[in-house]
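Worked example 2:
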Amino acid sequence: MSSNQTEFVFGHTVEGLLLALKGRLEAPLKAKLKAAGLDVDKKLEPAYPNAIWQRALQVGAEELFPGVPMSEAQWMLGERFVSGYFETNMGRALHGMLKLLGPARALERTSRNLASGSNFLHVEVERVSDTDYRIKVNEGGTYPEFIGAICHFGTMATGVKGLTTVVESRNGRAATYRVRW
């Protein structure tokens, strides 16, 4: 998948990924990330090209979940990413807000929350019913399960019970998710 050269993922988002990889960032993984374009021994840049982000996600999923099918590994990486992101300054503020909002209002703010991580992600949130939402993103990534997991575990932070999130469809780089509880 090629991505536009003007698409960037912001440094605080990359910080969330590094926190998800905490405890695994020894020489072999550092070398793989550096080969992907992410030198973790340097201070984080304000932003990274989306192509580097996509490669870093793949390297991270392979490292943390060897032998697991990539789509499943990306979901599991997304869960760890949310936990890691909630340890960043921006993530701590978001986590506190999500607890107050509840699942419906949190999902309705998904476009703003996901858009804060990059300069290219556009999200449409459609309310199907009180407990059923469809989330459309213009860029689902190489594996849309990663963003699906972000939607799922971000919404779980509200305290909602019985949440299910699935990748409903994929159209080129775009993806649609269904979130219900």
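The CA atoms of residues 27 and 33 lie 10 Å apart. The mean pLDDT is 93.
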